[in-house]
Amino acid sequence: MRSEIKRLHVLQHATTVYVTHDQIEAMAMGDRIVVMSEAEIQQIGTPAEVYYDPSNLFVARFIGSPGMNLIAGLYADGIIKMAGLDNRYAVPREWQSALQKGLDGGSDVVIGFRPEAAQINDRGKLVGKVYASEMQGASAVLHLTINESEIIHIRTDRLIPYPIDTLVHFDINPQMVRFFNPKTEVALKPEVTQ
Amino acid sequence: MSHVELHHLSKHFPGVTALDDISFDVKDGEFFVLLGPTGAGKTTTLRVIAGLEHQDAGSILFDGEAVDNLTPSDRDIALVFQQYSLYPNMSVYDNLAFPLRSPLRRRSEEEIRKKVEETAEKLRISHLLKRKTAHLSGGEMQRVSIGRAIVRSPRVFLMDEPLSNLDAKLREALRIELQHLQKTQGSTTLFVTHDQIEALTMADRIAILNEGKIIQVGTPEDIYDRPASTFIAQLVGTPRINIYNARREDGTVSLSDSDLHMPAPRGSKLPSEFRVGIRPENIKPDPNGKFTGQLILTEPLGAETILHIQSGQRTLLSLVPGMTANHIGDVIKFNIAFEHIHYFGSNGDRLPS
Fold first, then answer.
1. From the list B179, B197, B306, which residue is nearest A136 (CB)?
2. What are phi and psi of B199, to 5 degrees?
3. Which residue among B24, B110, B200, B339 is the one 20 to 30 A from B121 at the CA level?
4. How many domains, in total, are found in chain A?
5. Do residue B319 and residue A132 have CB atoms under 8 angstroms apart?
6. ipTM above 0.90, yes or no
């Protein structure tokens, strides 16, 4: 049905405004999406823009299935320390000045990345403990605890079994990492590099 | 927990055969999912195991002993339904304590308090214990319902579509919690659903039920990679598998209503007419691809994108990682992973490979 409606829209060269609570419909059908919450526009953008560059924590959580991984940490001297397992993340250089300027003088920060941005690697700098794993057909999703209350989601090759409590090391694709100010909930903007 | 066996169960309602010679077993500590479309007989199977309905023929065994003549309460099972069956005027604490206060299972209040608190912690509802259940959200209510089932240690958990009334994000979260809980508790669980993604993601094994008959039993990998029929191939996997009528001439397989021709698998005994199934992830766009088609639609989902590729009179679905750089209207080249093609007879049954 979803693809039939989009096909009709394309064939008719129609102008269409489509309302939905279902983020998958919005992503699959929209040329552009207006994400709304509490009577306010949170972001206007193409599916790629709202998915890869959500403007705030609401959009980051709402778009995607599962949503963006969001981990709280403390930033100092190019390093983010996260609660729980001893995770320290070296912030890519192009983001460092954005973090210095964007955190209003504080050090609280939220680091965000999509499940497919995590790259499992025995020597990865970050670590989580397997809570559950899901075979989803063509792919699989691993759910890892990184502290007492937070679970993150990683897309993997479905053919490798991961028993509960296995420690899994991973890195984050540096092109796909994002940062948010937890007080304002707004996404930080990276320094434009040439 | 218990090992559950179903031997040749049949059940008829006036004018319908609800269960037609159903046999399977759920091993001790196994997460077993019954998957099928509406009306397949899933709920009837569950109700017969619970003792809420009685079978016309066949037998049910728990740990090798027939339970056919036991009442539901003597079977010592716990049920979780789609509708949350909670007492709205009681607190979450009292709802969880209720099954323990049954006169059949005399326990001290101290013992009950310990059990309730443990259970609440496992389900992440400790902060809600004093709340009246009428004031909870749907997701919280279903957590309490599951808590009521696990607070005592029954022989078997029977769950009938417990996640169907929840919104997508909550369903995802509870799927993970249920699986973790089941694995760490080692409970024997029979879970009924019509949702193929719930079956794939949570099950140790899946039984596919259609029109009162079991048509395949296997691990999620068995079912997804070696579906026993085109019906099962189309029931499991999203986006849906591409199914074509096909014919073999000499060493070539030609798919009907399309421009797709491919080498017949080596050493195969394919009949001259049959059907093929190609999963969307096995249709791979490639600038040097052997096949050509026109992109008539793209559906970006975030982590992956569905491409609709017109080839002949048919549209193929392809699933690719990330976003696509191609646009609607583009002519694109693609390859098919021949080694992953499924072959079925004209009647829909999988052909032996």
1. B197
2. -65, -50
3. B200
4. 1
5. no
6. yes
